[in-house]
Amino acid sequence: MIIEVKLDDLKEGMAKAYENFAKRAGFKVTEETRFDCRYIEVSKEIDEYFWKYYKEQAYEENPNADEKEVRMTIAMLMLQYGAKRNEELKPWTIKIEEGYVINDNEC
To answer: Are 98 and 27 in contact (CB under 8 A)?
Structure first.
C-alpha cells in the first residue's frame, strides 16, 4: 500500500510518525500496537526529514556536540529503527507492507 503523508505526521519523531502512518493507512492503533520497520519504505524527502529532525534534537540537547558523533548516533538509530529509503517513491509517500502493524492481541 502506498500512501501520501503530511509534514505534520513527522514532527514528533519516528515513533509518532510510524503511528501516524498506520492511522493514515486505516489501521487501528492502540497502546499495544507496535510497528516493524522492516515492512515500511519511505521517500527520499521523509528519510532526509528524519535525519534533519534528529540532528536538530542532538544539538538542542548539546549545542557543542561533535558532528561526527551526531551523525554516527543518527545512523545507528536509523539502522535499528528507521524505515528503508526508496528513491523510486514519489515525494512524501510511504510504502507499507504486510507485517508493518502488529497488535499484541494478534500474536
So the answer is: no
Among the listed residues 58, 56, 49, the one whose alpha carbon sits nearest the alpha carbon of residue 14 = 49
pTM here? 0.86
User: How many other C-beta atoms are found inside a 10 Å radius of the C-beta of residue 24?
Assistant: 15
As for how many domains the chain has, the answer is 1
Reading the block at residue 80, the C-alpha cell is 535499528
Q: Are 73 and 25 in contact (CB under 8 A)?
A: no
Q: Residue 90 gets which letter from DSSP?
A: P
Q: From CA 71, how far away is CA 73, in angstroms rounded?
A: 5
Rounded distance, CA 16 to CA 18, Å?
5
Q: Which residue matches cell numbers 528503508?
A: 84
* pLDDT tens-digit readout, 8-27: 999 998 889 999 999 999 99
Per the structure, the complete domain to which residue 99 belongs is given by 2-106
Cβ-based neighbours of 89, under 8 Å, separated by 6 or more: 2, 41, 42, 43, 44, 95
